[in-house]
UniProtKB/TrEMBL annotation:
It comes from Staphylococcus borealis. Residues 1-35 are annotated as: Disordered. It is found in: Cell membrane. Pathway: Cell wall biogenesis; peptidoglycan biosynthesis. This is Monofunctional glycosyltransferase.
Length: 270
């Protein structure tokens, strides 16, 4: 027998091979699961847990929002100087719609674009930032006035949808205009027009002069910061905001070009 054959058949040679690890045709040792598959399973489990928690959270917010009785909004009509939006000039309504919610007549309680921006601002800045529709603001002012949080935003969305299902756009606009703060302890648009200008927003009221286009724009611009914007001593920032409002009113056809020019000339006198 040749020496090479004796070496191959020797017990020491076979023992050496038996102690060597066996590998499959890939790079992983036999019997060990691939690490990538294990990490994918962990990620999938975490994702499923997140979805379940998120669904439970949304369900809780929906339950909490269901406690808001939207019938209560009708009590706003009991205010002594309440004026329905149906009885207001179109430019009065347009001043607020163009400034606060230009797609008001197109959405059903919330504006996807504006709300998404607001939610991301809330998460990033830990504060509530703009983006709310007139319906959402109506809900916030009536039900959640002193609450500022991410959960309030979600509850506000659910209640706003309920409000849109029960009331017409003009009714909701009436609730809004008669339940926001205009400064100087004024919470209705009629009260604000009486107090600041000695005018009325009621087309059927012949005892007082009608509110002008400029005065409407001033009130719509003031509600953003009623305690900061002073009508008797207008800052440049306040005037620029009013000019922006007038421009939007013209672009959205709530006022004509001549009304726009007249309002601008009147603003220069302030």
């Amino acid at each position: 027998m040749k020496r090479s054959q004796r070496m191959n058949n020797s017990p020491e040679r076979h023992s050496h091979y038996r102690n060597e690890p066996h590998y499959n045709t890939y790079y992983q040792p036999v019997g060990k699961p691939p690490k990538k598959k294990k990490s994918k399973r962990i990620f999938l489990r975490i994702f499923i847990i997140f979805i379940i928690i998120f669904a439970l959270f949304i369900g809780l917010m929906y339950f909490l929002s269901s406690r808001a009785n939207v019938d209560d909004l009708k009590t706003i009509e009991n205010k002594s100087n309440y004026v329905s939006s149906d009885n207001m000039p179109d430019y009065v309504k347009g001043a607020f719609i163009s400034m606060e919610d230009e797609r008001y007549y197109k959405h059903h309680g919330f504006d996807v674009k504006g709300t998404t921006r607001a939610l991301f601002s809330t998460i990033g800045d830990r504060d509530v930032q703009g983006g709310s529709t007139i319906t959402q603001q109506t809900v916030k002012n009536y039900y959640y006035d002193n609450e500022r949080s991410f959960t309030r935003k979600l509850k506000e969305l659910f209640v706003a949808h309920k409000v849109e299902q029960q009331y017409s756009k003009n009714e909701i606009l009436s609730f809004y205009l008669n339940n926001i703060y205009y400064g100087s302890d004024q919470y209705t648009i009629e009260g604000a027009a009486n107090y600041y200008f000695g005018t009325t927003v009621d087309k059927n009221n012949s005892n007082m002069p009608q509110i002008t286009v400029l005065q409407s724009a001033i009130l719509a611009s003031k509600v953003n910061a009623p305690s900061v914007y002073d009508i008797s001593n207008m800052s440049d920032n306040f005037k620029n905001r009013i000019k922006t409002n007038l421009e939007k009113m013209k672009q959205q056809a709530y006022i004509s070009d001549s009304q726009y020019q007249e309002a601008l000339s009147q603003l220069n006198n302030y």
